[in-house]
Amino acid sequence: MPSLPLASMRLAPVRSALLRRRITAVLTTVAALSALLGAGAAAPPAGAAGVAREAAPTAVSGFVTRSGSQLLLNGSQFRFSGANMYWLGLAENPTLRFPTEFEVDNAMAAAKEMGATVVRAHTLGDTVGCAQCLQPARGVFSSSALQRVDYAVKSASAHGIRLIIPLVNHGTYYDGGIGTYTGWRGISDPARFYTDPDVINDFKQHITTLLNHVNTYTGIALKDDPAILAWEEINEAKNPQAPVSWVSTIAAHIKSVDSNHLVAYGTQPGLQTDTLSVPELDIEDVHYYPMSVAKVNADAKAARDAGKVFFVGEYDWVNHDGGDTLSAFLSAIEGNGAAGDTFWSLFPHAPTHGYVQHGDGYTFHYPGDTADMAARGQTLRRHAYAMRGLPVPADGTPSAPLITGVNGDALAWRGGALAVSYSVERATAGPGGPWTRICDGCATANSTPWRDTGRPADDTVWYRVKGHNRAGVSSPWSPVFRHKATRTTVTDNLTDWSTAYGHTSSLTFDSANSARFGGDTSRARRSGSTGPQHITYKFTGVARFTADTYFWPAGTVEPFTVQTSADGVSWTTAEPSLTGGAGDWIPWTYTLDGLTGVNYVRITWSDDSELSWSPQVGKVTLSG
What we know:
Number of strands: 32
Number of helices: 8
Helix content: 10-25%
Strand content: 15-25%
Strand order of the largest sheet: 5-6-7-8-9-10-11-12
Shape: globular
Radius of gyration: 25 Å
C-alpha cells in the first residue's frame, strides 16, 4: 500500500468560496451545523407541456436518453433529485478504505427514502494513484477496486437508483486527479493533462478499461448497464478550464466505447459556455457554493437555449456558505427546466455504531442529526418527489439494527436505515425473554454507545434493539445479543514479549519521550525495516480487543490492519472502530467488540510506510 499522509487523516478542510471539502481522509467528528433558515415546502415542478412524467421505479430498467435539453426514460420526461455519495467506491473516513457492503446498502436505502432516483459518485470512476484505487499505477488496474464498483452498481440498481459517475478530478484529492496522470509521465504542470497526447491516451485507456469492465455480481458490462445514467468527463474543471477540443475528444471517445450512456461535463464555478457547442456532450453539470437562484436560473437558461441538459451536480444544502435559502433554490430548480440535482453529500450509518462522519460542513445523515438537519431533509425529500411529479409517500419502515458490542454497561449498535430513535430491551433468564423495556425510544444513532445503568453487575444478560421512523413505525428487533457481564482481561503494556503469542523479528520497544505519548513508557515499533510486521495474541474466546496506538503527526504512515482467527491459521480482516485523534503523537484506539469464535488476534504494520518508528503500539487489551 502506498503511504497516507497522517496529517491529512486528522482534519477535513472547510470549503471556502473557491476550495472545498471531500479532499482528505478524516479522523474527526462532523462540524456543528448552524443553519440560517427554516425548511419550506417545495413547489411542483414545471414540466414540458404534453410530456408524461415517469412513474416511481422499484428497480432500474431501460436507459435514460436525451431529447434536446430534456432527459427521457421510455419516452417520458425524466427529472430527479438525489445525493452525492462520492465515497461509494473508495472511502476516506476514518481512514482510506473500501466501504463495507452495509454502508453502501444503508446509504442507498436512505437516498431512496429521500426520493432519490439518481446518485452521483466520484470514486466509482475517478480513483487513480493509490493502492486501493481503480488504477494504482499507470496502466495497472485493480480487480479489488473494480469489485467495489460492481457492488455499488448492483446495490444502486436494487434500490431503483441510477448513477452519474465522474471519471477524473480537476483537483488532486485522496482519489487522485489530473495531476496524478501528468505525474505518471513526469510532467509537473497538471494543466497539460488536457493537451499532452500521451496523458490523453492514458486517460482514454482508463475510460476504456472501466466502461468495458464486466460486473462480477451481475455479469453486465458497465457500458451496458442501465443503472448508470451518465459518465461525467471531469469533476469541477476550473481555470485553466478544459479546452473545448479536449471536451469534444473525450466525449467522442466515451461514445465510441459506450453507445448506451450520456456524457456530462462538470465545472465549478459557473457554466463553461464554450462547451455548449460540443455536439458529443449531453449534460452540463454546475455546482453552487453558495446557492444562488439568479445563477442557477441563468445557467439553466443558457444550457436550455443551447439544447443541452442542465444538471445541478452539487450544492450547499445547509447554507454553510450563505447564499439563497434552500427552499428558494430548490423551487428555482423545479421551475427552470433543470433535469435534476444532487446535494453534497450523504453518509451512512457506521458499521459499528453512529454515523460515518465527515468534517467539511456539508455532511447529511438521514433523517437528521439535529432539528435543522431533519427539517432540511424533509425539504429535500419533498423536492425530490416534486421533481418526479409524485406525492410524498408515508415514511418507510426502518431496517433492523444490529448490536455490535457491549463494554461494561455501554451498549453499541449499528443503526438501521430510516430510524430516528431506538428502543432497547433486556432479558436475564435467556434469549427468549421475558423482556424488560429499558429504553423506550430514548436513544438515537448518535447517542450510542448507550449506557444500561441498571444492568445486573454479575449476571449474563441478553439485549435486543429496534428502531422507529419519524411516524413511530418500528423496525424488526435486532438479533439477540448475549453479554457475559464478568470478563477475564489480559493487558499487554508492551514492555517485553511475555504476553504476546508471537511477533515478527523486526520489532523492538521504544521507551523514549513518554511525555509525548500521554505518559506511555513503552511502545512496540519497527526496528529499521518497513516491511509488514505484526504481533499475534492468543486468548481463548476473546470478545473484545483494543490496541492503543500512536502516529507521528508529520511524514507518511499507513494505518494498522487488525485480523482475527479461530485457529491461528485462517485469518479474517476485521473492521475496528477508531477513537482518539488529539495529542502530540496522535493517539488512536482500535477496538473490536462483540467477537465470537475468535481465539487469535493479530495487529499488523503496513508494508509501505516510509517511517520505521511510526506508528507505534502502546497497549493491547483482550477480554473474554
